[in-house]
Amino acid sequence: MTASLPVRIEVNGQCYERSVEARLTLADFLRDNLGLKGTHLACEHGFCGNCNVLLDGAAVRACLMFAVQANGHSLQTVESLAGPDGELNELQRAFTEHHALQCGFCTPAMLLTATEFLRDHPGETDETTIREAISGVLCRCTGYQQIVEAIQSVARSQQTAQSIRATEAG
């Protein structure tokens, strides 16, 4: 008999309270209990990064965490990125425009990892820095170049927006 424990987790802005088995992974909780299938499972050993979600804003491997470890925390999954009407956000549009996805399996984790990067490094366009930031998510299809270009385009947009704000303020 496996112990069940109560958890209260905010996922994509909505609070969920459930009783879960102590050994239930966060990835399985998101996929099976909440129906959020955008968290993809591949290696289930933490190597590939395809299960990345944002826990309190930081990318974590959902296959390596238990759901009970997320108790009291805030999670963001790929499902949170699009607008309420399904409109793609700027990064999702950039991935589409730059053909930064092929099979799409790594795309959710790549988008969340890039979201964290762009938030923490607004306007950063250096290719080496971007490649380092996304290196924890393995992609078997794209060769990464288009992913880097998509992230760079959003970073350039951030630079432009920051310049406009500085001009208007000064």
Characterize the structure shown.
It is a single chain. This protein is of the alpha+beta class and 170 residues long. It contains 5 helices and 5 strands, in the order ββαβββαααα. Strands 2-1-5-3-4 form a 5-stranded mixed sheet, covered by helices on one side. A hairpin with a 2-residue loop joins strand 3 and strand 4. The mean pLDDT is 95.
SSE inventory with pairings:
Elements: E1 4-11, E2 14-21, H1 26-33, E3 52-55, E4 58-61, E5 74-76, H2 90-97, H3 107-120, H4 127-134, H5 145-169
Parallel strand pairs: 1-5
Antiparallel strand pairs: 1-2, 3-4, 3-5
Tag the structure with descriptive keywords.
single chain, 170 residues, alpha+beta, 5-stranded mixed beta sheet, 5 helices, 16% strand, globular
Q: Helicity level, as a percent range?
A: 25-40%
Radius of gyration: 17 Å
Major β-sheet annotation: 5 strands, mixed
Structural class: alpha+beta
Total beta-strand segments: 5
What form results from the Cα inertia axes? globular
Runs in which pLDDT lies below 50 for 5 or more consecutive residues are none
Determine the N-to-C terminus distance: 66 Å
Fraction in beta strands: 15-25%
Order of helices and strands: EEHEEEHHHH
| Helical stretch tally | 5
The neighbouring-strand order within the major sheet is: 2-1-5-3-4
| Arithmetic mean of pLDDT | 95
